[in-house]
């Protein structure tokens, strides 16, 4: 993962402008992957860019790693991350929610994603104590600017997590909610806590509830202009739900792991990719015979495999989504071991049944079963990795890695899942 983070002594060149050193990476840039069409067969996408969301998720793992520093000084990797984030914010256009930047900190022409500033602010506050004094001031100013932007836009449509649709995103709303809650709770001096934060928190909680359709949480509400309120006019996009970003809204956002509506959605996510499901991956049947898996994709009608010119109906499982699902199991196990009652009801019953848990299962046994379920998922990721290198996806039939190589988020999600496991056990 660290090989995808630029520094003063470790730079990347822009593959679109070879030989133009002015386009080289700035320190602190976190690329999505070192893959681009010229060096990655059967891939026509260039990932040598910095996504705000991916960068924040990756930098959080740098924070949590608590790497030793020379003579107890600040973490230079995090100092550089903050400086690059500030550069991108200064250059962001057309909005301060711009999602993607070149490695030199200039905006890529698309898209606007309001989950990025929220996740970035959470990471900046988590990193604060590992920054040098000057960079701390930059971080505080950037958090305040992000919050100002989010308070003006949290009710608005945004581009969703997968950059495919514009509407009211469950994931973005969850990330924004966690950001506002984190800002209110922080003791970092200089962080503003505007009066509008508490009303925004209450509004976002209600907005998240409005995504429940009686069966699952809907990933996107697609009709603009009505504030995202529940309405029969919100169409369900065929094949887009259940969507893994509902689970990611728990891993990275504010949705509790004990939310039985989220667990109901998670159960259907797993069922659709196992044998007999609407988006069955044959590799999951093969893996099950080895005691591994299952692997998870994004949503049932996915077609993206790194090659947009030759879409694959049904798509493929991803390393990061599988690790995110494993982390949900680990986090829930930790909650149960800490004394939280098993969140078992008619909605969550299918989720717990997938781990052999019913209403009579003792808490300790339930926690162990959840850890075992998460372990099988992570072990499948390891088993199908290329000598521990992780691409974006695994082939849904063969299990071999495919799409872009060395996806940064794949590594970050693996590390995050293993941190959650360490707490659970």
Can you offer a commentary on this structure?
With 425 residues, this protein is mainly alpha-helical. It has a domain at 256-425. 43% of the residues lie in helices and 4% in strands. The chain is built from 13 helices and seven strands. A three-stranded antiparallel beta sheet has the order 3-4-5. The chain has a two-stranded antiparallel ribbon with strand order 1-2. A two-stranded antiparallel sheet has the order 6-7. Helix 3 packs antiparallel against helix 4 (133-153), helix 10 packs antiparallel against helix 12 and helix 10 runs parallel beside helix 13 (408-424). The protein is globular, with a radius of gyration of 21 Å. The two termini are 25 Å apart. Mean pLDDT is 94; it is low at 225-234.
Chain-averaged pLDDT: 94
- Summarize the helix and strand pattern as letters: EHHEHHEEHHEHHHHHHEEH
Share of residues in helices: 40-55%
Structural class: mainly alpha
**What is the end-to-end distance?**
25 Å
Overall, the morphology is globular
Strand content: under 5%
Organism: Actinoplanes awajinensis subsp. mycoplanecinus
EC number: 3.2.1.3
GO molecular function: glucan 1,4-alpha-glucosidase activity
Protein name: glucan 1,4-alpha-glucosidase
What is the topology?
Elements: E1 50-51, H1 52-65, H2 76-91, E2 100-101, H3 115-127, H4 133-153, E3 158-159, E4 166-169, H5 170-185, H6 197-209, E5 220-221, H7 245-251, H8 260-273, H9 282-288, H10 319-337, H11 349-353, H12 363-384, E6 393-394, E7 401-402, H13 408-424
Antiparallel strand pairs: 1-2, 3-4, 4-5, 6-7
Family: Belongs to the glycosyl hydrolase 15 family.
Domain GH15-like: 24-418
GO molecular function: glucan 1,4-alpha-glucosidase activity
């Amino acid at each position: 993962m660290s090989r995808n983070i630029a520094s003063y002594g470790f730079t990347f060149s822009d593959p679109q402008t070879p030989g133009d050193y002015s386009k080289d990476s700035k320190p602190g840039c976190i690329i999505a992957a070192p893959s681009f069409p010229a060096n990655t067969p059967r891939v026509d996408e260039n990932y040598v860019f910095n996504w705000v969301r991916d960068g924040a998720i990756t930098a959080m793992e740098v924070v949590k790693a608590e790497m030793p520093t020379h003579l107890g000084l600040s973490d230079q990797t995090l100092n550089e991350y903050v400086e690059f984030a500030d550069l991108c914010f200064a250059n962001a256009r057309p909005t301060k929610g711009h999602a993607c930047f070149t490695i030199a900190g200039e905006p890529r022409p698309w898209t606007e994603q309001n989950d990025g500033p929220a996740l970035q602010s959470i990471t900046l506050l988590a990193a604060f104590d590992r920054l040098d004094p000057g960079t701390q001031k930059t971080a505080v100013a950037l958090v305040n600017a992000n919050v100002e932007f989010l308070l003006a836009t949290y009710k608005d449509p945004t581009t969703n997590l997968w950059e495919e649709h514009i509407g009211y995103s469950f994931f973005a709303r969850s990330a924004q909610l966690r950001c506002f809650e984190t800002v209110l709770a922080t003791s970092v001096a200089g962080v503003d806590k505007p009066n509008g934060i508490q009303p925004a928190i209450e509004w976002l909680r209600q907005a998240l509830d409005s995504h429940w359709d009686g069966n699952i949480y809907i990933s996107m509400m697609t009709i603009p202009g009505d504030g995202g309120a529940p309405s029969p006019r919100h169409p369900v996009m065929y094949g887009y739900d259940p969507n893994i970003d509902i689970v990611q809204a728990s891993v990275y956002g504010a949705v509790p792991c004990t939310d039985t509506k989220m667990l109901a959605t998670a159960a259907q996510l797993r069922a659709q990719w196992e044998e007999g499901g609407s988006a069955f991956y044959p590799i999951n049947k093969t893996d099950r015979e080895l005691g591994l898996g299952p692997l998870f994709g994004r949503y049932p009608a996915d077609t993206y495999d790194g090659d947009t010119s030759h879409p694959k109906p049904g798509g493929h499982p991803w390393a990061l989504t599988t690790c995110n699902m494993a982390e949900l199991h680990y986090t829930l196990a930790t909650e149960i071991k800490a004394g939280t009652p098993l969140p078992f009801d008619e909605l969550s019953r299918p989720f717990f049944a997938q781990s052999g848990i019913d209403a009579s299962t003792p808490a300790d046994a339930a926690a162990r079963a959840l850890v075992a379920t998460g372990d099988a998922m992570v072990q499948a990721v390891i088993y199908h990795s290329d000598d521990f290198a992780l691409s974006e996806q695994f082939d849904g039939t063969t299990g071999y890695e495919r799409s872009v190589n060395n996806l940064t988020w794949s590594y970050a999600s693996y590390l995050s899942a293993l941190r959650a496991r360490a707490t659970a056990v």
